[in-house]
Amino acid sequence: MKNLLSAGRVLALDLASTILFLAVFLLTNNLFLAVGLGMALGVVQIGWQYHRRQPLGSLQWLSVVLVMASGTATFLTHDPLFVMLKPSAIYCIVGLVMLKRGWMNRYLPERAAPVADVATSFGYVWAGLMFASAALNIALALWLDPKSWAAAMSAWGLVSKIGLFLIQYGWMTAVGRRRAAAAGLAPT
């Protein structure tokens, strides 16, 4: 359970900007305030890790660059449809980065090394989730009003990522135990 909570903490930190964006937007109905606070939180998170001299992965750097670029473009265009469509571009860029073999290995604890091949496979599943999310976002942006879109896509983002995270964790744990038993080792 300790490993699940530790991994879940990383996921929660990655989703913090999305959670903040959704909460602020739903409470205030102010898209630009929600975007601005989401941008600020993303920068603060990266700054905090940098200050603590913690390693920053390529996905983290990509995230802060995308948050700043897309947030700035939101403020410059003041176009709700642009705001609604831009996550599709971001999802596609993140999906492309996630196609890099082994990108997920830096997020795994040492004890997961025996199932790193499974994590690599799940890295491609995560990329697929990003591309599917991009397609869903385009459909919903063209069909829904901004507030309904924000609620739907934020809920989808949270539920899909937490769901895939739990599936991956369960699958990798089961494979690790099965491999340990086959090798005659005590499961960890």
Write the layout of secondary structure elements.
Elements: H1 2-28, H2 31-51, H3 58-77, H4 80-98, H5 116-143, H6 146-182
Question: What is the gist of this entry?
Answer:
The chain has six helices and no strands. The chain is elongated, with a radius of gyration of 18 Å. The longest helix is centred in the last third of the chain and has 37 residues, at 146-182.
Q: Give the helix/strand class.
A: mainly alpha
Report, as a whole number of angstroms, the end-to-end distance: 11 Å
Low-confidence stretches: none
Largest sheet entry: none
Tell me, briefly, the overall form.
elongated
Q: Count every beta strand, where a strand is a DSSP E run of 2 or more residues.
A: 0
- The portion of residues assigned to helices is over 70%
The helix/strand order is HHHHHH
Radius of gyration: 18 Å
Estimate the strand proportion. under 5%
Count of alpha and pi helical runs:
6
Mean pLDDT: 84
Report what the structure shows:
The chain is an all-alpha fold and 188 residues long. It contains six helices and no strands. Helix 1 runs antiparallel to helix 2, helix 2 runs antiparallel to helix 3 and helix 5 runs antiparallel to helix 6. The radius of gyration is 18 Å and the shape is elongated. 21% of the residues are buried.
Task: Give keywords.
188 residues, mainly alpha, elongated
